Each structure stands twice: as structure tokens, then as C-alpha cells.
């Protein structure tokens, strides 16, 4: 799924991957040569009746509510994937300042957002 972009190093092109996505505002070993702008992935999820039932049962006993944990992890993974796709469409090879956000739209309905700043980086050979 990685694509080749203009930025490159002695070892070949720099590809957008998990290694070039960071919550920091700089990427050690690289220098930002172009700011492309904000990229995002968004999903709105609802809990099913079955999920609510099993989650309610698990909450009686306490501890990790795995039904909801899995739902949250799946939503984050999908929004992250969509953010990467948006960055690739804009010819970025890195994302800085990546964040997640979640907001209840209404009871049982949650928006999950993954966003960051798409940039083009080159290996800092200084």
C-alpha cells in the first residue's frame, strides 16, 4: 500500500508508514521540506444491542469491558487507516502531530476522529 513520492534518501524513496507518523511535531532524523496540511480519518459508530448486553454483563463483574475495548480499537484502527489514505492522496510521506479525538454525537453514537499534519520529509544528512 505504500507509494513512492518525490522525497528520497540515499537508500531510496521515503514512504509513508507507521514509522513516519508521530504525535510529536518533528520527526527525528528527518527534516520537513513541505507542509501539506491537515489530513484526517473519521468514523461514526454505534453500539449494537448485543454489544450493549454483553458489555452490561461484563460491567457487573468489573474489570476490562472487552466488547467496548474491541469496538474502540477497531474504530481507531479504521480512522488511522483513513488518515493515512488521505495523506497518500495528498502526496505526503509523513504525518506529524497525530491525534485521536472522540465525541458522543448522541446516546450510543460516537464520532472517532484521527488527524494530523501531512508533510513531506527528507532524511536529515547533517
Topology of this protein?
Blueprint: E1 8-9, E2 12-13, E3 30-46, H1 49-61, H2 66-89, E4 94-106, E5 109-123
Antiparallel strand pairs: 1-2, 3-5, 4-5
Q: Could you walk me through the main structural features you see in this protein, from its secondary elements to its overall organization?
A:
The protein is α+β, with helices and mostly antiparallel strands. The protein has helices at 49-61, 66-89, and strands at 8-9, 12-13, 30-46, 94-106, 109-123. A three-stranded antiparallel beta sheet has the order 3-5-4.
Features:
126 residues, alpha+beta, two-stranded antiparallel ribbon, 5 strands, 29% helix, disordered N terminus
Which segments are poorly predicted (pLDDT under 50) over 5 or more consecutive residues?
A: 1-6
Main sheet attributes: strand count, strand direction, barrel closure: 3 strands, antiparallel
Strand content: 35-45%
Order the strands across the largest sheet as they lie in space. Answer: 3-5-4
The structural class is alpha+beta
Amino acid at each position: 500500500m505504500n507509494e513512492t513520492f518525490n522525497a528520497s534518501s540515499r537508500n531510496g524513496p521515503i514512504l509513508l508508514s507507521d514509522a513516519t507518523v508521530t504525535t510529536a511535531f518533528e520527526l527525528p532524523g528527518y527534516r520537513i521540506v513541505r507542509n501539506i496540511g491537515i489530513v484526517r480519518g473519521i468514523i461514526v459508530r454505534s453500539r449494537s444491542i448485543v454489544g450493549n448486553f454483553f458489555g452490561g454483563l461484563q460491567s457487573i463483574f468489573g474489570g476490562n469491558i472487552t466488547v467496548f475495548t474491541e469496538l474502540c480499537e477497531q474504530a481507531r484502527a479504521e480512522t488511522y487507516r483513513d488518515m493515512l489514505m488521505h495523506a497518500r492522496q495528498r502526496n505526503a510521506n509523513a504525518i506529524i502531530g497525530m491525534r485521536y479525538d472522540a465525541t458522543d454525537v448522541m446516546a450510543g453514537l460516537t464520532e472517532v476522529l484521527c488527524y494530523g499534519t501531512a508533510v513531506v520529509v527528507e532524511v536529515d544528512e547533517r
